[in-house]
Write a structure and sequence with these properties.
TIM Barrel, 17% strand, 9 helices, alpha/beta
């Protein structure tokens, strides 16, 4: 199937998941995970109507973004090292993978230098997997006030990657926990945290049922990854 056909099928699944949970399809943003994909594949996705793309590595994004149409929006969704913050601030319109106060402080410093403000999501390792980055929920709540005090950072919500499973339903408790953590964060700060970035190709329907506002889909859209630039 073509990327356009894959996209139509994904949108139908999003609409069905929204219908089951009493939500409007327009409440859920579909983000294309373009890491490892060629600029040609990205162009096909853009022609089919996708505007928001997610990259996991600064160096790959640096090479690809100038080759793509200027109307696209790019988010950093992979682990970000502090020594890459200066470039990340220049390349991305949102960073979804802020996982420490130290990283947020460096982003704030680089944003101050660039005279801009950066929307961020706080990445939470809900399952406590040693192989994944992200805040432990308790640590996130401990640092939330300090994060919110950084003047060049705007906390828009939370992000997580559920443990891998071939049974999507098994991811539900992790998505539900992230939604509950967002509510606790909102109560603590006294301001809304509107975004819940959760759900990928294998589990995005369950994530939508649990309140996802942004789903990150790669394989279901593009198929298996190609070499970037091919």
């Amino acid at each position: 199937m073509s990327i356009a056909e894959n996209l139509a099928a994904i949108r139908a699944r999003i609409a069905a998941a929204c219908a089951r949970s009493g939500r409007a399809p327009g409440d859920v943003l579909l983000q294309a995970v373009s890491k490892g994909q060629s600029t040609g594949a990205i162009e096909q996705a853009a022609e089919a109507g996708l505007l928001v793309f997610g990259e996991s590595k600064v160096q790959e994004a640096r090479a690809k973004i100038p080759l793509c149409r200027g109307t696209l929006t790019w988010h950093m969704i992979g682990h970000l090292q502090t020594n890459k913050c200066r470039e990340a601030v220049q390349l991305f319109s949102m960073i979804q993978s802020v996982d420490s106060l130290h990283l947020a402080e460096e982003l704030n410093r680089r944003c101050e230098q660039a005279s801009r403000t950066m929307p961020i999501l706080l990445e939470v390792n809900v399952a406590g997997e040693a192989s994944k980055f992200g805040y432990a929920p308790a640590r996130l709540l401990e640092e939330l006030a300090a994060l919110n005090a950084l003047p060049r950072i705007e906390i828009h919500g939370l992000m997580t990657i559920a443990p891998y499973t071939t049974v999507a339903e098994q991811a539900r408790p992790f998505f539900r926990e992230l939604a509950g953590l967002r509510k606790r964060g909102e109560d603590q700060l006294g301001v809304p945290l509107p975004q819940l970035s959760m759900g990928m190709s294998g589990d995005f329907e369950v994530a939508i049922e649990e309140g996802a506002t942004l789903v990150r889909v790669g394989t279901s859209l593009f198929g298996s990854r190609q070499r970037a630039g091919a």
